[in-house]
Specification:
199 residues; alpha+beta; M1 Pyruvate Kinase, Domain 3; eight-stranded mixed β-sheet; 4 helices
């Protein structure tokens, strides 16, 4: 049975990111998320207390809430260790709002409904990481590793606002099951590779 392990929110704060010329530029991001106790209210545009800076990446109605499977955490701890950044990662470290178990990308389908506490979400799309993820994670190939591994997590829209809390079970109501998050990620990656090859 899928379960919600942690609920995390973040505020906009400066983040030092590597620029294309090899220098460093300071940007604003809310990618740093911290688990919060107790029930959290979820509205149409996301979690109470969570900020979203670049709405093209995370935010708006279709990408209001970001879920990430806890099963991928050991992979990221290993990758960070190889980059010289050892240590356990707390929930929220991938920039997710909801850390979940028992719901991987191959098991989540675009259009599926997720009932968690009082809240109902609908699965919309996989995450496409950007340079801010590299800066947040501390090494320059983190986003590339997310794309190659397919460990993207996924975004949801909010169908029914309400409260949820860590420990809530996740009831999955199947949609039409045409495309899984895993398949959607592969299709998106293939299209991007084709565009790069063609021109």
């Amino acid at each position: 049975m899928p379960q919600l392990l942690a609920v995390s929110v973040g505020r906009a704060a400066p983040l030092d990111a590597r620029a294309g010329d090899g220098g460093v530029r300071r940007v604003i991001s809310a990618i740093r998320k911290t688990p919060v106790p107790g029930p959290v209210t979820v509205g149409a545009l996301g979690l109470d207390g969570d900020e979203q800076v670049d709405l093209s990446v995370h935010g708006g109605l279709d990408k209001a809430v970001y879920l990430y499977p806890a099963e991928h955490y050991p992979f990221w701890e290993t990758v960070r260790g190889q980059a010289g950044l050892a240590g356990a990662l707390p929930h929220g470290s991938l920039g997710e709002n909801l850390t979940v178990s028992g719901l991987l990308e191959a098991q989540a389908w675009v259009g599926d409904r997720l009932r968690i506490g009082e809240v109902e979400l609908v699965v919309t799309q996989p995450r496409s990481p950007c340079y801010k993820f590299d800066a947040h994670f501390g090494f320059g190939w983190a986003s590339k590793m997310m794309v190659q591994s397919g460990y993207t997590g996924f975004y949801c829209a909010v169908v029914r606002p309400g409260k949820l809390a860590a420990g809530d079970r996740i009831d999955v109501l199947a949609g039409e099951r045409a495309v899984s998050i895993e398949q959607a990620h592969r299709l998106k990656t293939r299209r991007a590779a084709s565009r790069s090859f063609l021109g």
